[in-house]
Design brief:
With 454 residues, the protein is α/β, with parallel strands linked by helices. Helices cover 33% and strands 19% of the residues. It has a 7-stranded mixed beta sheet with strand order 6-5-7-8-18-17-14, with helices on one face. The longest helix has 35 residues. The radius of gyration is 31 Å and the shape is elongated.
Length: 454
């Protein structure tokens, strides 16, 4: 067919019209992908998407979330963190992630209390929390729930009898712990029981932090009435002396054995044997997936039994000194086990009590040690985390969800360690990454050349 000027113009117009239609289609697809997001996670563990619980939490968060990641200049590690956070960013675009190298900004890392490589500092509405690796959806979402807590619950504390103060600055006080509670959405309250008719019932709990003088009977009765009415209690004991609180101990079925825990394994940490270390905990919401080591200076043995009369269910939270004992005699510079009077370890030093009361139930935590939350020892090991877990459980915030971690089934590749296995693994990896793409490229060039010559 002879091509003249008219036919050439028609072909040009057809081609131009096709190009315009193609560009319009590309633009339309771009617009649709910007306005509508559709994705499907085909991994076995659905590790690229969030559960419905996490999505619901993000929907309730009104305002930006800032995430600062303190990690060295490791591109692979940063990519892992970016992939984890991208799931949350897809659901909430105003989550901003900033990577900070602690080596370049040591003062900033120190001010933030960074202890771990890859530690995250998440900020929302002037409150912040830390998240340490490994990162799982359950921990991240629960952290966001705590930050989004809009109804500040009052953590009340007993005062006026030599207690460790939640706003105190002395070494034995609990001021730093109180500050951490405020950062997590709680507020502190100090009801004066000498004036108040009763312990306020709208608080989250009452903290009794080791009184040093006897609490007057009138105040003890108000505390007992508060407990009988369903109030939650965090009771920290430094010794077996009840300081007038014996009626409360009897109501809770509490037994405190005179003496002190001796943990000979503390020597491996360079510590005094009167400091007990714990790294094994009971199966309980407070200690679920809790794997941090905690320490308890001069801990006491506390125990209680399930009560049919009052309906208490008791969980022994923490056992310490499995290779030590409970010293019931006089404590000197040198201690030794006495088979006649001392009690072999392990020793119970913390209890969690709960019972059915109304719709939300009632909860009590008793620890035979107040030192572990003091300004001196709070930063050691997981002491702060354990204390926060206790308060969160006592608060009974129903918005604290439990999302089971998603098992990762399809990301691990085990490379054989024998020489033949290493060679085969290298052939497989390099074959797919280099040999196969190059072979396909050469085949494509050969086919194109043959067709051109035909």
């Amino acid at each position: 067919m002879k091509i003249n000027r008219k036919l050439r113009f028609q072909l040009f117009m057809q081609n131009s019209f096709f190009v315009l239609l193609f560009l319009a289609l590309v633009g339309l697809l771009g617009y649709l992908t910007n306005e509508y997001h559709v994705s499907r996670d085909i991994t076995q563990s659905t590790r690229n998407t969030l559960s419905k619980g996490s999505l619901d939490v993000l929907k309730q968060m009104d305002g930006p979330v800032n995430v600062r990641v303190f990690v060295s200049q490791d591109d692979q590690y940063r990519k892992t963190i970016h992939d984890f956070m991208s799931r949350y960013q897809r659901a909430k675009p105003d989550i901003k992630v900033e990577f900070i190298n602690p080596a370049e900004f040591p003062k900033l890392a120190q001010d933030e209390g960074i202890k771990t490589e890859g530690e995250l500092v998440i900020e929302f509405q002037k409150r912040s929390e830390h998240l340490n690796p490994p990162y799982v959806e359950q921990d991240m979402t629960n952290l966001l729930v705590r930050l989004a807590r809009t109804r500040q619950q009052a953590v009340m504390y007993l005062d006026g009898h030599g207690e460790r103060n939640l706003i105190g600055l002395k070494n034995h006080d609990l001021g730093e712990f109180g500050r951490q509670l405020e950062k997590r959405g709680f507020k502190l309250a100090n009801p004066d029981l000498t004036i108040a008719q009763e312990v306020p019932s709208n608080g989250a709990m009452l903290v009794i932090a080791s009184p040093q003088i006897n609490v007057p009977a009138v105040e003890v009765q108000k505390i007992l009435d508060y407990i009988k009415a369903g109030g939650n209690i965090l009771w920290l004991l430094d010794d077996e002396q009840m300081r007038g609180l014996q009626p409360i101990a009897e109501y809770l079925g509490l037994e405190v054995t005179p003496g002190m825990v001796i943990d000979m394994s503390s020597s491996q940490y360079g510590a005094d044997p009167k400091i007990a270390f714990a790294n094994q905990y009971a199966e309980h919401p407070i200690t679920k997936n809790f794997m941090l080591r905690t320490l308890f200076p001069e801990a006491r043995k506390v125990d209680a039994q399930d009560s049919f009369e009052y309906g208490w269910k008791v969980t022994r939270l923490i056992d310490v000194a499995p290779n030590g004992w409970y010293e019931t005699g006089k404590i000197g510079e040198k201690v030794s086990f006495d088979q006649k009077s001392d009690i072999p370890g392990p020793t119970h030093i913390a209890l969690a009590l709960e019972r059915v009361y109304g719709k939300k139930g009632q909860r009590v935590v008793i620890v035979g040690n107040a030192n572990f939350l003091s300004n001196t020892f709070l930063a050691n090991g997981g002491n702060l985390d354990l204390g926060i877990n206790m308060v969160n459980w006592l608060a009974g915030d129903e918005r604290l969800i439990t999302i089971q971690p998603k098992p990762i089934k399809d990301v691990n590749v085990i490379i054989p360690t024998d020489p033949v296995g290493k060679i085969l693994a290298a052939l497989v990896f390099f074959g797919f990454r280099l040999v196969l793409p190059i072979a396909l490229l050469i085949a494509g060039v050969v086919i194109w050349w043959k067709r051109r010559k035909a």
